[in-house]
Write a structure and sequence with these properties.
Helices cover about 15% and strands about 25% of the residues. It is of the alpha/beta class. The strands form five sheets. Strands 6-9-12-15-18-23-26-29-32-35-37-38 form a twelve-stranded mixed sheet. A ten-stranded parallel sheet has the order 7-10-13-16-19-24-27-30-33-36, with no helix packed on it. Strands 8-11-14-17-22-25-28-31-34 form a nine-stranded parallel sheet, with no helix packed on it.
Length: about 350
């Protein structure tokens, strides 16, 4: 890290308001709890606000509306989380970029077209008809299938597999173990046997997409499986055949999108949410973690639970569930009192007889 970076320079970089000594030198980045002298940290989630009073950091980024005191310099910004990311990109040296060229162990078909300054790492395989845009990096052990296209400024981390006829836009970032274009899960029942349905479609991925480790995106049965521009997908997500994901969606780990699910623009999906096939999720919807989505979701709604319902109803239902143990106790008490009353009534009737 550059030892000459001061908190004054940081405040100017993020267009922030500094409260404290501008000459304080920043030598690292860390969380509120782990930060020490020389570190800069940030507060994005209000639940951690109390940790500011105990932080040993030299500076902290907070929102412009934050109210409190800190034992260090404070920089107020519109978005502390984004500002912290900007600082990280500025002060932390990037991972060295592999040198352009083809490693001697790579297998590259004779008709492959490589742009300017492309890097192909050890033991990669680029099949016939592949086109790779300028400055794209393909690291060790990747496979790019026949007639696939990758745009400029992409980065495939080790052991990414791209099957045949996949189309990928500019600035793709695909992490290790990701598979793009494998066959969709399609079978027809014939007697007691399952007959495989040919998956003859393609996968099409837009610009500025990031795919986490071990993401799987299946090719379409026919037509296209589509991932729009600016989509961010976490580790271990399954995208089924003929799914269409709109621009600038984000989904956390272990989400499962069954075949022909249509996801609108700007949708946010929590971890482990599952979607039945042949349904539509409207623009800007929010899907809570572990939600089960059996039917269409309207635009601009927040759905949670299994089966998913509007989030407010799910919170209400969950509150009732948490009261069940006490309700059980009350029912038991009422049953005991009822039994006592019935016993007394029976005794009274016996005396009258």
């Amino acid at each position: 890290m550059n030892p000459s970076i001061t908190i004054g320079a940081v405040a100017r970089r993020v267009n922030g308001i500094l409260e404290g000594d501008p000459s304080v030198v920043i030598t690292g980045l860390n969380s509120l709890q782990e930060a020490g002298p020389g570190d800069i940290t940030f507060l994005a989630n209000p639940k951690y606000a109390a940790q500011i009073a105990q932080t040993r950091a030299s500076a902290v980024l907070v929102g412009k509306d934050w109210k409190g005191t800190a034992p260090c310099a404070v920089v107020r910004t519109d978005n502390p989380d984004l500002s912290f990311s900007m600082i990280a990109e500025w002060v932390v040296p990037p991972v060295p970029r592999p040198a352009p060229g083809i490693h001697p162990t790579a297998v590259v078909a004779a008709d492959v077209r490589l742009g300017v300054a492309v890097s192909v790492g050890p033991y990669c395989v680029l099949e016939p008809g592949v086109v790779v845009g300028d400055r794209t990096v393909i690291q060790a052990g990747c496979t790019v299938g026949r007639d696939s296209t990758i745009g400029p400024d992409g980065w495939l981390y080790p052991r990414v597999t791209i099957r045949e006829r996949v189309r990928i836009g500019a600035r793709i970032m695909a992490h290790s173990g990701t598979v793009i274009g494998s066959d969709g899960f399609g079978y027809a029942r014939q007697g007691d046997a399952w007959i495989k349905i040919p998956q003859v479609g393609i996968v099409e991925i837009g610009d500025d997409v990031e795919l986490g480790a071990n993401v799987t995106i299946d090719r379409a049965r026919f037509g296209r499986t589509v991932v729009g521009n600016g989509v961010k997908i976490d580790n271990l997500v399954q995208v089924g055949h003929n799914v269409r994901i709109g621009d600038h969606c984000a989904m956390a780990a272990q989400v499962g999108l069954s075949g022909t699910t249509i996801v609108g623009k700007g949708v946010r999906i929590g971890g482990q949410a599952g979607f039945a096939g042949h349904l539509t999720v409207g623009d800007n919807a929010i899907i809570g973690a572990k939600a089960g989505i059996p039917k269409d979701v309207p635009a601009n709604t927040f759905m949670s639970g299994y089966p998913a319902v509007p989030h407010e109803k799910w919170l209400e239902a969950h509150a009732h569930i948490m009261r069940l143990p006490r309700l059980k106790e009350r029912v038991a008490e009422l049953e005991q009192r009822l039994a006592m009353l019935e016993s007394r009534l029976s005794s009274g009737d016996a005396k009258k007889g």
